[in-house]
Write a structure and sequence with these properties.
Layout (H helix, E strand, L loop, with lengths): L2 H13 L7 H12 L2 H12 L8 H12 L9 H11 L2 H7 L7 H28 L22
Helix pairs in contact: 3-4
């Protein structure tokens, strides 16, 4: 431990002489001493507004895990954690996952990762088919394109 950390810890123990210091008590004391309340409020708001956006499920998971510690009451149970993570996923993933029974957070994350991977593989296959055939077969004329000239008979 560094000198500053050690000094804080010794002071913390002295102020609670004779008391059992649980993990919850330690966390609360540490946060109060080192993380300003304003920062906790900002991070809590950031967590509650967290959305996957164009990032991957993995990136969303990392942000979720990082920010969730600032809003422990929002992820106090497995069901709450599942619900909060699901709300932040892209709508298309939510639509696919809503039919799955995800009772645990890890189950939801695993299914979201698999769905994302399969969707990416499907998109890659479709792109390769389009590129390999020189484009879609028998393309329909677009409104901005003129239709092919019809032969005229005399």
């Amino acid at each position: 431990l560094g000198c500053t950390t050690r000094a804080w810890w010794y002071g913390f123990q002295i102020m609670r002489a004779g008391q059992v210091i649980t993990w919850a008590v330690f966390k609360d004391g540490f946060r109060a001493a080192h993380i300003p309340r304003g920062m906790m409020t900002i991070k809590k708001r950031e967590f509650r507004a967290l959305r996957q956006g164009s990032g991957s499920v993995k990136e969303h998971l990392q942000k979720f895990n990082h920010l969730s510690r600032y809003a422990p009451e929002d992820v106090s149970s497995e069901a709450a954690k599942v619900e909060r993570f699901m709300e932040g996923l892209q709508q298309s993933l939510q639509y696919q996952l809503v039919v799955c029974e995800c009772r645990t957070f890890s189950d939801l994350v695993n299914k979201a990762l698999k769905l994302e991977d399969k969707r990416r593989a499907m998109d890659d296959t479709r792109k390769r088919k389009l590129m390999g055939s020189g484009g879609p077969s028998n393309p329909k004329p677009r409104p901005w394109q003129s239709a092919p000239a019809r032969p005229s008979y005399q």
